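step 4 of 6: structure.
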Amino acid sequence: MHQSTKTAWVGNHRPLVTAFGISLALSALLPASAFGQSDTPDFTSGLLALEGEQSEIPEVLTTTRLRQSKLRVPGTTTIITGDMIRDLGIMTLVEALRLVPGMVVGHWGSTNPVATYHGTSQYEQRRLQVQIDGRTAYRISLADVDWLSMPVALENIERIEVSRGPNSAAYGINAFLGSINIITRSPQDTAGVEAYTSVGSRGHLRTFTSVGDTDADKSWRLSYEKRKSNGFDSQIDGGQEIPFHDGHEINNFNLDSVFRIDRQHSIDVRAGVLDGVNEEDLEKSGKLGATTNPDIIMDDYYLHVRFDGATSPDHFYHIQASYQNQRQRQRWTVSAPAAEINALLPTGLPPFPEDQGPFIADLNEDLEETRQEIEFQDTVIFSDQFKLVSGVGYRKDSFNSETFFNGKGDNYQSRIFANAEYSPFRWLTFNAGGNWEQTTTTDEDYFSPRAAANFILNNNHALRFVFSRAVRTPDAFEQNPDWSYTPTNVQPPFEALDGQRIKVEDILDPTTSTYGQELEEEWITSREISYFGQFHLERALLSVEVRYFNDDFHDMISGVINEEEWYIANNVDLEQEGVELETSLEFSGTKLRATYAYLEQEGQYTGDPAALPVDKQERAVDLLARLSARDSGSFAWIQDLPMGFMTSAAMYWTNEVRDTRFERADFRLSRRVDKTDYSYMLALTIQHYLNPKPWISPDNRIEDQNQFFVEAGIRF
Amino acid sequence: MERRSGTIHQERANSGTRSLFPRALWVLLLTLVSAFAHGQESPARSVYFAGSGNAPLDQHLVQLLKGELEPAISLIEVSEDQLATLDSGPIITVGPAAFSRARQANRSAHILAMLVDKSFISGFAERSPGQITGVLYDVPLIRQALTGKAILPQATKIALLATADSVELYEPLIDELPAYGMSARIFLVDSNDKLIPTLVRALGYGDFLLAAPDSAIYNPRTIKHILLTAYRRNQIVIGPTQAYVKAGSLASSYAPFPEMVELANDFLERFFESGQFPEPSYPEHFRVEVNAQVARSLNIPLPSREDIATRVDRQLTVNGEVSDE
C-alpha cells in the first residue's frame, strides 16, 4: 500500500495506478466489507477499534478519566472548543471561561486574572484543579491559578473541558469545586507552519508562530507565543486618576511531540519555557512602604513525558511524569520612618537615630517552586456495560524562598483513584469512583467519593443524579508560611539590619493573629440533578444541559492573610444552591449558544466566637462570597457568510460582584481565504463595555468603552 | 375364462411389443433433441467468473450470483491462467485488478465488471461500448454529501481533499451541491507530507469532510491519521465506503451486494437478448452504514440508518436525480 500510495502522488497514469491502489485497498479493507453487508449492525472491528484506539476519539475525558459520552458522564461538563474561542475573538485564555456557566472572571491587584466557579474565592483561586494535557498547572506551593503565566497559547488549544462540580474523586484535593483541563492540539494535527498576530487597545499584542511535521512514526510542533498588554488604563488613588503600572509581557515556547513505537505504544514528550514580567504597581500592590514597583519576573519551565500503551483493544494504560519549575523574582525598595523600625526592634537593642532619614532597603518575595509528579493509570473495558479506570499518583512539591517558608521545604502527596462505569441496561448507567489521598501538609489521609446514576432515554437524553464529597487541604503557605523579609542594600544608618530576618508574625496585629495555628481540611458535599439532551431537528441540532446543584461546605478556610493581618481558620460553613443552563443550536451556517447561571449562597461563621471580633467574623463569611455572582451568563452567535466571511457576536454578563456588574458585548468580523497552498484570515473585533463602571475593583478602569483588536493569521 | 384372459394377455403382450420400439425411438429422439437443445442453450447461457483473489469476498459473490442467475445462466469460476483461453465471454470480474487481468488476457471478451468505481470503468466502457460494462461500486458523491447532511442537518460547507489527479472526481459534485443548499471546496494535496497540513486547513473550512474513493488520499495507511485528526477537531468524516465506516468513518451510503447482483443479472439478460451490454450504472437502491460508536463519542445524535437513507432519497427525489447517478 505504501508503494502504491507513493506512486499515486507523482503518477500521471491514473487509471492503472488507481486500479492498483484500489485493488490493494480492497484487499485490505474488503474482508470487513464482504461481511458488513448484513442489516444487523455487526461491528467488525475497524482500523481504530482494532488498535483499541476508539478511545483516541475525543469524548469527555476529564470527569472520570474514562472516555465517556456526555450521556454517561457522572456530572456536567462544559466543552469549549478552540475554534469557538477563536471564532468569538477571545483574546486571552481566562476570558474563554466566561463561556462556562457559573464562572466568574475578573482581575485583582495589579491586573492579575482570576476565574472562579461558584465563588468561594477571596482573590487567589485555590479550589480549582487546572491541568494542561493532564499535567497539573496551578501554582505549586501557593495553590493559586496564575492565568498570566499559563504555558499554553490560544492557537494550540484544541478544547477546554470544565467539569462543573467537585471532581476530587478523579483528580484529588484541588478539584474541590471543579476541574479545568486544557487539551492542546496533538502535534499529529498541526503539521505545517502557522503564524498569527493580534494587536489592539490597551497595548494588546499577541503573536504566535508554530512549525511542525508529522509522519507515521513521529510528530512534533515547536511554537512560540508573545503576549503583551498594558493592563488597565488607570487606577484611582485618593479620588484621583493616576497611571496604573499593571501590564505584562510574556514569552512562551512549547515543544510538543509524539513518537509512535508500534501500533500500541507511543510516547508524548512536551517541554516548555516561559519568561516574562508581570508588572505590579507600587501604589496598588506595594508592601511595607514600597517606593519602586514590585514587578514579578517569571522564569518557568517544564518537562512532561507520557507513555501510552495497550495490551489489547480493551486494556490500555499510561504512565506520565512531569517536572515543573516556577521561579519568580520580585524585588522592590522600601522606605520606612526610623521610628517604625525602632518599634520592631527587640527590647534591649539600641534604637537607630531617627534624624538621619528613613530606613531604605531592598526587600524581595523571590520564590522557586518545583513540582515532580508521576502517575500511572489503567483502563479496562470489560464490556460495553462495564468499564474500570484506576491508578496511582505521587507528587512532590518543593519550595525555596528566603521570604516564604524560611528556606527550603517539601510536601508529598500519594493517591489512589478509581472509577467504574456500569450500564446494566441501555437506559441506565451507574458511575462510582473515589480518590484516596495522603498529604504531608496535614499528615492525614482523605477519601473523596462520587456516585451517580444516569438514566438515558432514546440514546439522546440523559437524566443524571450525582452525589459527591470532596476535600481540600490547606496549601503550604496557608498552613506553614514561616514568612519573613530579609532586607538587603540597607542604607546607613541601618546597615546592621542588612541580612537580618524580619518576621511577619512580629508585624501582624497580635489581637487577631492566627499565624502558626494548624489548619484542617475543608469539605464539600455536593448533590446534582442534571439533564442533558440532544434534539435532531429537521434542519438543526439542538443541545440542552441543565444542572441543579445543592452544595454544603464545611470548615471552609477563610480570613485575611497579608503582612499586616493574618487571621485564617476553618471558620465558615456555606450552603450553595442554584441552576445552570447551557444550550446550543446549530443550523445551516449559524451557531447559537447560550449559558445562564443562578446561584444562592448562604454562609455562617462557625469558628471560635472569641477568636475574632464580630466585624471580622462577618468579613470572613463575606470573603467567601466575594466572587460569587447571583446571575451570570453568556450568549454567542457565530454566522457564516458567503465568500469566507464570518461574523460573531457575544454578550457576557455577571451580576454582581462587590457591587459591580460585568456587561460586555463583543463583535467580530473575519474573512478566511483558502488558496491552493495556504489559507489566511483577517479579523476585526470590537469589545463594547455596556457598563462603564469598573468591574470588581474601582482601579480596573477602562477609559474607552469600545476596545478594538485586529487579527491576521496564515497557515501553510 | 382362463383362455380368454390368456388371450387377452397375449394380445396385450403382442400389442406391447409392437408399440414399444417407436415409443423408445421417440423417447430417445426427444431425449437427444432435448439434450441437444439443452446443450445448445448451456454454452450460450454460461458466464465466467474471475474473482478478486479475496476468497471470502469471492465466495460471497458467487453464492449471491448463483442464487440470482441459476438455473437459467450457469456461473463458471475461472482462474487467472484460464482467462486467456476463454472465448468472448461474458466474464464477470470482481474489482479493478481482476478486470485489468481479464481485459489484458482477452481484449475481445465481453466483461461485466463488479466492484469497480465509475472513474475506473467509464473510460473502458466508452471505448468499447456494449462490450464492457460495470455495476458501479462507488456511491455517487452527491448521495454521500446528502448522507452527511442527513446526519448534520446544519451542515452547508463540505471540505474535500484531492490530488491534482483526482480533482476531477469532485467536479460534478461541486456543480450539483448548490441545488441542495450546500457548497464544497477542494483542498489540493500536493504531496504526501502535505496531507495533514492540508487536512487541517480543510477542517477549518468545512462542516464535515467528504471522502471519495480516492486511494491516493484515503487508504489504509492514511485513514487512521485522517480520522483521528478530524475527530480531534470534532469534525465528522463521511465515506468513502462501507469498509471505511468499519474503520471509523462516521457514515457512508453503500450499494448492498444483493442490489448489485440483481443489476448484474439484468445486464446479463440484456446481453443475452441483444449481444450488447448496457452502459455501466449504479444500483437503484442504497443503504447507509453508520458507526454508532463514533457518533456517541462525538456526541452526535444519529438518526436510524433507514431514516438517513430515506432523507437522502427524499432530497434526491425532490431535486431530481442528478447526472452522475
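step 5 of 6: annotate
 - Chain A touches chain B through 93 residues (CB under 8 Å).
 - Residues 1-58 of chain A have pLDDT under 50 and may be disordered.
step 6 of 6: archive
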